[in-house]
Amino acid sequence: MKIAVIGGTGPQGKGLAQRFALTGVDVVVGSRDGARAEIIAADLSEPLTAKAGKISGMDNLSAVRAADEIVILAVPYGGHDATIDGIREGLSGKILVDIVVPLAEDNPKKVVMPTEGSATEAAQVKLGDHIPVVGALHNVSASVLADLQAEINCDILVCGNDLEAKKKVMALISKLGVTCYNCGLAESARCIEALTPILIRLNISKATPFKHGGVKVWAE
After folding, report:
1. Counting Cβ atoms within 10 Å, is residue 204 exposed (0-12), middle (13-18) or buried (19+)?
2. Which of 37, 191, 209, 217 lies in disulfide reach of 57, CB 3.0 to 4.6 Å?
């Protein structure tokens, strides 16, 4: 299996690329600058074992085209729409996993939802129904992802309008040793994405005893 991580040179993208590679998945790191992506990919590959999947680097559109089916979008919200426009032609027949949260530029403890309701829904509207968009991985700390010796300390809430696409994405993410929950249609992203600034607020608060908390679903 080969996936693409667009924005794979950023904090979340780097952690996801390494963690998926450790499960044996080949990962193409995408960036606007293909040469930079190649350098980052080499750096990310260095600490991994020979049994890990291969991490390579390409420009964004080439990375999307190289993916077998699943493309993860992990760019800052300010580049969300422009990046989708730039990779649209390579997404035919593929699934876009949108992990972007619309945080306010001047305040990461606040979301500024687009008119569509969420970043996930905005991506689906831009791409049309023929390209399934799945929202996932919104609430995982980049610091947690970067610590390859630690388990991911939260569950993964997944949403989207295409059930089969969600099942495929959940099967992929489950390789990371986490529990995934199907949280319904894309409109559920309005709630899921909005949890992130709450977590950020808690994680930076001096009143809480933790720094990288996440979301766990507990059953009685």
Report:
1. exposed
2. 37
pLDDT digits (tens, 9 = 90+) for 101-115: 999 888 888 899 999
Residue type at 193 in one-letter notation: E
Q: Which residues contact 99 (CB under 8 A, 6 or more apart)?
A: 12, 72, 73, 74, 135, 136, 137, 138
What per-residue confidence (pLDDT) applies to 28?
98
Strands in 2-6's sheet, in edge-to-edge order, are 55-59, 26-31, 2-6, 70-73, 95-98, 133-135, 156-160, 180-182
Q: Where are the beta strands (DSSP E) in 32-169?
A: 55-59, 70-73, 95-98, 103-104, 107-111, 133-135, 156-160
Tokens of 196: 């992130």
C-beta separation of 124 from 186 below 8 A: yes
Burial per residue of 33-63, b for 16 or more beta-carbon CB atoms within 10 angstroms, e otherwise:
ebeebbebbeebbeebeeebbebbbbbbbbb
Is 0.90 surpassed by the pTM of this model? yes
Helix (H) or strand (E) holding 11, with range, is helix 11-22
Cα gap 56→51, rounded to integer Å? 15
* Calpha distance 139→99 (Å, rounded): 9
